[in-house]
Design goal:
Protein name: Zn-dependent hydrolase
Strand order of the largest sheet: 6-7-8-9-10-11-14-12
GO molecular function, one term: hydrolase activity
Organism: Haematobacter missouriensis
Strand content: 25-35%
CATH topology: Metallo-beta-lactamase, Chain A
Keywords: Hydrolase, Signal
Pfam families: Lactamase_B_3
Helix content: 10-25%
CATH class: Alpha Beta
Amino acid sequence: MRLASAVAATLALMPALVGAQESGRTPSHCVALAGGMPLLQKASWRDPVPDETVRLSFVNHATYLIQTARGLNLATDYTGRLGVDLIPDVVTMNNAHSTHFTANPDPRIPHVLPGWEEDGSPADRYLDLGEILIRNVPTTTRDFRGGERDFGNSIFIFEAAGLCIGHLGHLHHEPTPEQYAMIGRLDVVMVPVDGGLTLDHPTLIRALQRFRSSIVLPMHWFGEGTLQRFLDGMSGSFRTSRPGTSELEVSMRSLPAEPTVIVLEPRWLR
């Protein structure tokens, strides 16, 4: 059964590979291994992004700004606020809590991708903008009464510059084998690390090891204590770096040789 699921997941990803070839986008390594030199570049979100590179800026809570070399701007778990009047080309949202979405996204935003459907069916998002491909894997969330809400969250995956970048949203359960197969390897992953409202730390760490991520970017942390507990749990298998900045430039060439947790400081754009 697991083999069949993995084969089905691989077939489902084939359009992404074909699309990459047709658009000129460097194919990502979501379903392959990645290596690289332990070199990470820091820059301002206003600077041009170098070729074959992606810039990630930690804005606030679960919102990251993702920028590409040709000038695309994408905001994750978008709440309607970034700190400046920047209109992203794409926003993704989840609605487990109001801090992960807005009910009134700016109408100037070309592509708004909610991670849920109002009728409870699984969201199916697949947006190929040439330089970047965005897709999702729906997951189940808990409700406030202790019950389950099927497909209430989406893990969004961004494929650009040969990288596979994941944002786990408001993840409540470890992915199933089928979901792991659909997600693939995540070179870079943005993870909620509060350990209570979202996935508990032992389960989250197990998932991150399964993703074989080179870079883990914490988000959704409520104070230094919560963050430090997560870092302590990761210390056995991941290095930790805290460069003291909010932005990070990543390329296939600059992925660290050892899996690394990089703590970016949340800061509104300015």
